[in-house]
């Protein structure tokens, strides 16, 4: 939710005045989808363990139960792949929205002729990249 993050930029027309600039974008949906799927996967795994360990005879006698378990597992696997791809895309969008050159382009004060804006350092995204890869 980048729109909630304000930052101050200098206003070159006044001595000490600043303007508040808000970032653009809400990229939280892919991460929320990934976490929600992880919680549901955990709950399903716990339920399946109870079924396997406590009601083993029921699982062995009923021939439809293993097929249903397999189908649910395949669905979770597919959604996990989709969620991981969506999370990766969301991270790419966050990187694009917070790139220093993009921020400078969004600042009106940097568009004036006599003003020189330098981006400074590039944000470190190493931990975010690791979170998507793992």
From TrEMBL:
**Pfam families xrefs:** MARVEL
Family to which this protein belongs: Belongs to the synaptophysin/synaptobrevin family.
Q: Which domain of life is it from?
A: Eukaryota
Keyword presence, Nucleotide-binding? no
Q: Where are the transmembrane segments?
A: 33-55, 67-87
Localized where?
A: Membrane
Keyword Transmembrane helix: yes or no? yes
Which keywords, in A-to-Z order, does the entry hold?
Answer: Glycoprotein, Membrane, Transmembrane, Transmembrane helix
Query: What Gene Ontology terms describe where this protein resides (cellular component)?
Result: synaptic vesicle membrane
Gene that encodes it: Sypl2
MARVEL domain residues:
1-134
Topologically, how does it sit relative to the membrane? Multi-pass membrane protein
Q: What is this protein called?
A: SYPL2 protein
């Amino acid at each position: 939710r980048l729109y909630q993050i304000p930052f101050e930029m200098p206003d070159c027309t006044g001595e000490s005045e600043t303007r508040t600039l808000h970032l653009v974008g809400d990229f939280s949906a892919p991460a929320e989808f990934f976490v929600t799927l992880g919680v549901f996967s955990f709950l399903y795994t716990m339920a399946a363990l109870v079924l396997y360990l406590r009601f083993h005879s029921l699982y062995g006698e009923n021939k439809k139960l293993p097929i249903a378990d397999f189908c649910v597992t395949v669905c979770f696997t597919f959604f996990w792949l989709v969620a991981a791809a969506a999370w990766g895309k969301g991270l790419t969008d966050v990187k694009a929205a917070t790139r220093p050159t993009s921020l400078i382009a969004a600042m009106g004060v940097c568009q004036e002729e006599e003003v020189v804006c330098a981006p400074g350092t590039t944000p470190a995204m190493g931990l975010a990249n690791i979170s998507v890869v793992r």
